[in-house]
Every structure is written in C-alpha cells, then in structure tokens.
Amino acid sequence: xxxxxxxxxxxxxxxxxxxxxxxxxxxxxxxxxxxxxxxxxxxxxxxxxxxxxxxxxxxxxxxxxxxxxxxxxxxxxxxxxxxxxxxxxxxxxxxxxxxxxxxxxxxxxxxxxxxxxxxxxxxxxxxxxxxxxxxxxxxxxxxxxxxxxxxxxxxxxxxxxxxxxxxxxxxxxxxxxxxxxxxxxxxxxxxxxxxxxxxxxxxxxxxxxxxxxxxxxxxxxxxxxxxxxxxxxxxxxxxxxxxxxxxxxxxxxxxxxxxxxxxxxxxxxxxxxxxxxxxxxxxxxxxxxxxxxxxxxxxxxxxxxxxxxxxxxxxxxxxxxxxxxxxxxxxxxxxxxxxxxxxxxxxxxxxxxxxxxxxxxxxxxxxxxxxxxxxxxx
Length: 378
Known about the structure:
CATH superfamily of the largest domain: Type I PLP-dependent aspartate aminotransferase-like (Major domain)
CATH topology of the largest domain: Aspartate Aminotransferase, domain 2
Helix content: 25-40%
Strand content: 5-15%
Low-confidence stretches: none
Oligomer: single chain
Mean pLDDT: 97
Shape: globular
Distance between the termini: 30 Å
Order of helices and strands: HHHEHEHEHEHEEEEEHEEHHEEHHEH
Strand order of the largest sheet: 1-9-8-5-4-2-3
Number of helices: 13
CATH class of the largest domain: Alpha Beta
Radius of gyration: 21 Å
C-alpha cells in the first residue's frame, strides 16, 4: 500500500506527466515566462468553466482577496463581515488595509457563515460581506446576496476551497461558486482541488469596469506600461503555472468526482457511530470536499490526532484557533467576541486524508483506525 498522505500530488502528477512536462518545456522554449498567450488562454478557459466574463490571474489567493478589496474601494475604517472560522488570509488582508473585520458565527452543520446572523452585524461602516466556502461546501449565497442588495453591500467570495462547486438558487438557476458575488477569489496552492506546482490565484467578475481595475491593481496600478493610475501591487501568475493549471482544469470535474467518491466511502464507514458527525451536504450545492472534516462528539480530538499519527495516518485540524482569538486581531477587538459555535467547532473538528488518488484499501485502514480509537475510549 502506498504511504498515506493528506494530499497525494505526486501520484496525481504522474498520471498527467506527459502533458504537463510538454507544456512546461513549451513555456521554457518560448521564453515568455510572465503573461502572454499561455496565461491569457488559461484565464479564458477558467472564465468559460465558471461562466463569468472575466478571470484575472494573480500570484496567490491571499493577493486575490486583497486586490478585490482594493478594487472595490474599501479603505481604512471601513468594515467587512466575515466568519472567524476560516484560514487567516481571509481576514488578514482586511487588516493589512486598515479595514475592520466584523466576525460572525458559522452554521454548525456547513461550517460556513450563517446568513441569519449577518444582518445584525451591519453598521453604517459596513461595506462588504466576505463569505468563505469552507472545506468545499458552499456558503448559502442566495440569502447572502439578498442581504447585500438590501443594504447596498459588496460581496467578495472566498472560494479558495470550493472551486467547481455548483450552487442552485430557489428558482432553479445554477451558478458555480466564485461567479455569484461581485468578485470571486480563488487559490491554486498545490493542495487545492485545482492546484498548481507553486503559488497562484485568480479573481473573477462579470463587471467590465471592475475587471479593468483588478487588472490595473495587480500590475502596479498601470493602465498601460509606465502609466500608473491607481496605487497597486505586483501580483502575477507565471506562465509555467498557467500551463500546468490549464491542463489540470480539463480534469477538474473528474477530480471532484473522485473526492466525492472518497467522501461517500467515509460517510458509509462512519454512519453507524454516534460519536462522529460526517460532513453535511446541503441539497443546493455539490460539496467538492477540499477537506473531509469530521465533528467529534465527546471524543478527545487531539488524542485521536496523535493516535492516527502513531499509526502512520496523517490528519489535520483546520482550524485550531479561530481568527477572532488570534493575537493579531487584538487591536480590532477580536478578544471581545463571543462566538460559541465557532469555539465549539475548533475544539471538535478533524480532517482526514482526501484526494484524487485515495483507494479503498487506504480508506479502510483510515476508517478502521478512527473507529478503533473510539472503541478504545469507550
């Protein structure tokens, strides 16, 4: 049996090695390493996949979020509403710009921002909502968009973990996550469902003027070379990564199907155990399982984490310390928040290996060891 990994990028690469190697060599031979046709082609293909007018590649998912806030004109003293139960990048970029993150609760089942709580957090300083599609499940975008429209707020989707997830509205309309808000932001970090072999990210929008501004900010604020109209930054996706991503994009739906199949196996393995809550799957979106995250009921999560490691099984805790409890947000009043659901989840969640290359033998071992630990405890 192959060694167990949280994400097996090497085996995935070996299956597409011929195409990837040829694409990388073509870029090297072209000597066009920044921008150019390869990057533009990938952006166009990703836009087509998402059903959006514009995709603007950038250096990473964190930059995508920061550039999005800059393009929307958010400034120091403004407020954005966001979950605390997220990777730090979501709220770090707001703090970098002097924008105050207003932390709200997540839904205990979906792990995503709770729309019922958003409206009570809105103040005259609120300018945007930043829903995070955590672990591959969709935040409930229909009520979020309704709230945003009612209060004239922007919506920036943090879609770093749920690329390819299709969200269904009540009227039957279906849209891919990242294409619903004013701007969708994603990451191509190697472990993502659509992962590069280095860093990368992208922003997407249907607004022509906003697309132009995103492009300008990502390129030193230039409208044309050496003419800088706005304050910007330097955030580019290189051509080698774009070439790799363009190949992997053609496999993305296949990769998602493999992750969902692996999740089905886990679901069945843990179904009868009342100490384990498997990931919730809402009927209005197709969970793409960037992570397979259990919620433990009365089980010593940290002890399970160590037990699995002792048995050669990796697991991860995403995220042990929520954003509002991080020292970096003391200046923004983070310690004053009382987010009981968020704190409850951070003490109970654990993520098991899930990726496109998992086989049933590996999964059976993982499931057996999880259940074995619980049987020892009880």
